[in-house]
Amino acid sequence: MKILFENAIVYTGEKLLKNAFLAVNGTKIAYVGDTRPEGCFDRVINGKGKVVLPGLVNAHTHLSMTLLRGVSDTTNLQSWLFDNIFPIEAKMTPPMKKVGALLGMAEGIACGTTAFSDMYAGAVGISEAARDAGIKLNISRGTTEFSDHFDPTKNNDAIEYVELFRDWHGFDNGRIRVDSSIHAEYTSNPDTWEYMVKLSRDHHAIMHLHLSETEKEHREGIERRGKTPAQAFAEYGVFDVPVLAAHSVWAEPEDLVWIKKSGGAVAHNPISNLKLGSGVFDSAAALRMGVTVALGTDGTASNNNLDLFEEMKSAVLLSHIRAGMENAISAEDALKMATVGGAVAQGRSDECGVIREGFDADLAVVDFDRPHLMPCHDVISNLVYAARGSDVCMTMVRGKILYENGEYLTIDMERLNYDLANVLDELFPGKNTRL
Amino acid sequence: MKILFENAIVYTGEKLLKNAFLAVNGTKIAYVGDTRPEGCFDRVINGKGKVVLPGLVNAHTHLSMTLLRGVSDTTNLQSWLFDNIFPIEAKMTPPMKKVGALLGMAEGIACGTTAFSDMYAGAVGISEAARDAGIKLNISRGTTEFSDHFDPTKNNDAIEYVELFRDWHGFDNGRIRVDSSIHAEYTSNPDTWEYMVKLSRDHHAIMHLHLSETEKEHREGIERRGKTPAQAFAEYGVFDVPVLAAHSVWAEPEDLVWIKKSGGAVAHNPISNLKLGSGVFDSAAALRMGVTVALGTDGTASNNNLDLFEEMKSAVLLSHIRAGMENAISAEDALKMATVGGAVAQGRSDECGVIREGFDADLAVVDFDRPHLMPCHDVISNLVYAARGSDVCMTMVRGKILYENGEYLTIDMERLNYDLANVLDELFPGKNTRL
Fold first, then answer.
1. Domain boundaries, chain B
2. Burial state string for A350-368 with b = 16 or more CB within 10 A and e = fewer than 16
3. Which of A4, B4, B53, B428 has its CA 20 to 30 A from that of B42?
4. What is the ipTM of this complex?
């Protein structure tokens, strides 16, 4: 399929082109520039009033938790997790998790998201959902080990990882990849870390982990090991592989240096961190240090949606008060976090994250023909400060349109609604969770 | 026109009704409850999957500034205002301001907004726009006086106020009202204040003013007068009339007591205050003191949209870090700020702000049949944390539908687009401000 966008605004990730042409040939971007490329196209899309972006990357989420949207809105992470979330999660079966993940993917796709980095027990169901939905997925299972010993033949996470790497790592030419994972410093031990590092090395996989999300976690980690969680990880070689460090709200400058050296990224989740009362990550300081910052929504149970446009706006607005300085980060900084930053976080910066010839045609198209996007003095300002996820009119992954003008082309929404009703009835018997 | 919503979720402002019936007769709410009212209806609306709310009130904005959306995104209020905004505003004619206001109203109406409190020079044009758009408007002109003397026959604001009160105060049975106004402590003098208080008294009008928006303004006010701006106002009787105090980020507890005593409200603008680096108003402390808090977007030039759903979510999320405590305010607190709090701020709490028999039928209907609003464990949680302005499917003012499923019924959008193009060409010659 050859598709041509003509007379569009294109933000390539590096520059803003007006009245531009963008050609897609099969799965790849064949041309981007200001003259009409020669040749025939199966479809020509009038880009008038539309802005084409690199697809947005949600670099940290737990898609199956979409089933738990709004279950608990307390700001205390510990109480939220142990009193409210864990008891329900214990009842979630793998097929339920697949349905929850597909619902989350549907939501994200409608907001221009082309790739997710997910961490969850039940990773196989989430991978199956991504296979069906056509999106890119870096899947991981947050490995925990609460005993003193780590035995990969007995740890459920390690056992599932065997299947994950075998069946899903590199699936569909790498559309789905598996990330190695340590859930967090406080939920595992050094044996676990060394095992997960080995998995990363063996499979050339990213290491996705939670890092210093709350002050309590960070402080108790220091009390426990005499060093920060990141420093403790470093001692066991965790940063010898590219680390995707979610949150990092309380990470210290030397911790960020480790992330930078690893070739990985921080997944900044500004809304979830506020909602759970964890604080605000100092993204301005991280960018000044040359650390790659990506954006994540975290799960809907602590957000409560998957709209990266909200995250971009929040990231900029919060940066100023967090850094205590004017213009701490810019709108374009946030847009880069959600695109190229995410691609780095997924180890995909050689295939997507920017609009460039030869790269995958992973695109989000935003319709500016709406009152709240007029006038347009500054395209990037309107994208970050005025637009919403609902302004996305098309989402494309590897040249395949997944969503256009409210219609899903890969997800059967009728079937999903039916499955969702059944799952909710089973998980929350007697409660009406559908309007 | 008699309209019946059946089987809807209705949040009355006081409680949440499921499978409820809501009848509108002419301009008023005729019934709300759980049994079907008798009688014939011109239209019966199936409320399945929909949530009906009191219409949202945008308690502080500058609608004509919609023309300036994204013109400058610096976080420094002084530089933003003096270097970027004022020079363009100086070129804006009254007809331009009307077009800008109508664009802002179109945006707000599509997000469920039924009433605005606006402060701007060019108030007549904004009033004309509200007359045409069918929304409720409290209009004011932020009165300034930079000389030592205030002569109401020479001050442009005072001169316009004569016309405003004559032509617009009480227009269409009070759909449009005029608020008296002092722009701010630092832009006027006590003579001005006393004159504006007299106007408020004479016309039973709200006093709309900017209060302690930035630390600098608050501190310099204290240096200038030996007391806070609010205390200085109090000395001249400003709080003898109901005061709508925009921002109040740096207002002190005793300042808030004055607002409470006046019977007025704070207009909390969380996003604008972050964007201009002003800080975060402590809404939790204000609510504990019994101060009415309403929500505003401020102008789009410092936001950059007019979506009160974003303000509600931001208000809750920021309250926790501002107050330094868990669960500082709740989602329902924010929903009340945007509805009944706004009605108090406008002096309209006897006519709207809640859904109650005999009150004006000012309604916003939210469509929950969307992936990001599923499941629905908690209606108010989904409204505040997961919904966006674009989920509004109907906006009604006094029983008249202004907007439904993307269509405007009072605003001619084709004409508005045409007028907007002309205004932008004139105001920004040679610049392409339309995609």
1. 2-54+354-408, 56-345
2. ebbbbbeeebbbbbbbbbb
3. B53
4. 0.97
